Amino acid sequence: MSHTKTSEIGDEAGTQRVLVCQGRSCRKYGSFKVLEAFLADLVPGVEIIGSSCLGQCGNGPMVLVERDWTKPMLHKRTWYWRVRPDEVPLVIERHLRLAHPLVKMFYPKFHS
Ligand code: FES
User: Do residues 79 and 107 touch, judged by C-beta distance below 8 A?
Assistant: First the structure.
């Protein structure tokens, strides 16, 4: 399954995307509601993708925010774990709109 939606406004289109895992394990923990929450408040230039398994089963719902993934020297990955739907508006506002990632929600395996 794949859900993809991109806002059509903004000149930064395609530089940032959010992968919301829709693999079996993450779905068991409610990742479809997390995806719906991201799709409910689109940010210009940010693509929202319902992805296949991100390889971190059991720690979800997993959300991976990627910036500049088409530019190897600038590519940055931010992993969030155990994301709840009610936390998504904060991620949208702080990380996607203001570029201030939420350190307290980082996945410790990749951000220690
Ligand atoms: S099902 Fe989400 S990380 Fe594997």
Answer: yes
Q: Are 17 and 51 in contact (CB under 8 A)?
A: no
Ligand 1 binding pocket mutation candidate from 18, 29, 35, 57 (most atoms within 8 A of CB): 57
- The domain that contains 46 carries what CATH number? 3.40.30.10
Please confirm whether the linkage preceding 101 is cis (ω < 30° from 0): no
pTM for the whole structure: 0.87
Tell me if 61 CB under 6 Å of ligand 1.
no
Does 110 fall in a domain?
no
> What's the 55 CA to ligand 1 centre distance in angstroms?
5
Q: Of 65-69, 70-74, 89-93, which gets the smallest average pLDDT?
A: 70-74
- Domain, as residue range, for 76: 3-105
Give the closest residue (by CA) to ligand 1 atom 1: 23
